[in-house]
Amino acid sequence: MSESTATDIENRVRGFIAENLLFSKNGYPHTDETSFLETGVVDSMGIMELVMFIEEDFSINIEDHEVIPDNFDSVCKVGSYIRQKMTSAS
Fold first, then answer.
1. Distant-in-sequence, close-in-space partners of 87: CB < 8 Å, separation ≥ 6
2. For the segment 19-46, what is each residue's pLDDT rounded down to a tens digit?
3. What total number of domains does the chain contain?
4. Domain range enclosing 41
């Protein structure tokens, strides 16, 4: 996967969180490593919205047991998870 694709994934995730969960017009105000749980960036309902966005936007199926902090606790972790799912699907 190219670097631009990797960057595109994180950009799309950041954009979704900024617009739909933080209601920010100024973009995502945290680093990609910032923990959603520790900082309260995304709550449990927000995680479910993020899961639905990822399933629709990236055309991947997310199993309930995969919705864990290792996969969904930062932009970096979400990006890695999406790349892993896209790779295993192909």
1. 1
2. 999 999 899 999 999 999 999 989 999 9
3. 1
4. 3-89
